[in-house]
Amino acid sequence: MITGYLITPIAKGITYTQKAIITFLTLFFNMKPTGLRDYATNIIKLIMLCVIFTSVMYVSITAIISINRRIASENYKKQRLSLNPQIDKIEPNIVYPGIKVIIFGRNFGWKGNENVLLAKGKEVVTTDLWTDTKIIFTVPLHWEPKNISFLIKKSVDWEGKNIVTKSDVVTIHLLSNIGAFNENDKAYFEQLKYLDAETLEINGYE
Fold this sequence. Notes:
The structure is a single chain. This protein has helices spanning 16-28, 36-81, 183-191, 197-202; strands at 86-91, 94-95, 100-106, 116-120, 123-124, 129-130, 134-138, 147-158, 161-166, 170-174. Helix content is 36%, strand content 25%. The chain is of the alpha+beta class. The strands form 2 sheets. Strands 2, 4, 5, 8, 9 and 10 form a 6-stranded mixed β-sheet that branches. Strands 1-3-7-6 form a 4-stranded antiparallel β-sheet, with no helix packed on it. The model is unreliable at 1-12 (pLDDT under 50).
């Protein structure tokens, strides 16, 4: 039962929030009940406040739990995806048979220490160099001139299970080294202006 004796002014150190609460309660409740009706009204108001407070707390806690679950789920996903091989660039991306291609990135794994491979469809591409941040391979002479797509596959342990992670797919355009010189051949030589020094060097363009 709320009466004037249950809410008294706080002398020192009272906060603005406390003042606001006391002001609200003072205005909301009958601080000087004179009869049964006043007491009953105060009790009903108290029940209403409790219901509202409980509802607000329930909604707030539910929202916090939902947000925490979403954050945990996103962190879990980021942690899982961080294991995937990440390809930053591949060059040159217009090639002839026999050209050496460099794939730059991270999380490739280490050949010999981990189960890793460079896949062209179902075909495993033979590589000249494999490190955690760089892969070099030579375009085979028998490949058919066309757009050719690759991805890196790497086995990792995740929560006690061995899973195969994959990179995004990257594509190179393989040209024929026979026939008349055309616009595709021109594009090949044009790209040489923008390649890394390492890519140029391993292909004899010094």
